[in-house]
Amino acid sequence: MVSEQAIIRELKKVIDPEIGINVIDLGLIYDISVSNDAVSIKMTVTNPYCPLQEHLKQLVENALSSIRGIKEASVELVFDPPWTPERLSPKAKKELGFG
Question: Contact, 60 vs 27, CB < 8 A?
Fold first, then answer.
C-alpha cells in the first residue's frame, strides 16, 4: 500500500503554472484518501473561475499515476470550503509576500 507521505512528496512536484508554487504548499489539496492500491484526492484551485483548473487536475492525476503501487486514482475538484490565503504553507506565504 502506498503511503500518504509518498503521495505528498510526488504532489510537491506539481507546480501551479500561474503562481509557480506546488499544490501542497498552496493548500490546494484538501483530502487524500488511500485504500489499498486506490487513491482519492479532493482538491481546489485558488479561484473557481481559474481557466487552468482542468489542466491542474490533470497534472495531479499524472503525478499520481507515476507513483508505484497506485492502480486507481481519482481527483475531484471541490470549491467548498473556498480556498483562502490562510491555506498557504509558511514557505508559500513568504514567497508570495503574505508573511
Answer: no
CATH code at 4-79: 3.30.300.130
List the chain residues with pLDDT less than 70: 99
Cβ-proximal residues to 13 (8 Å cutoff; 6+ apart), any chain: 22, 63
> What are the domain boundaries of the chain?
4-79
Residue owning grid cell 510526488: 10
Dump pLDDT digits (tens) for 50-71. 999 999 999 999 999 999 999 9
- Read off the pTM: 0.94
What the block records as the C-alpha cell of 21 is: 508554487
- Phi (first) and psi of residue 35, to 5 degrees: -135, 105
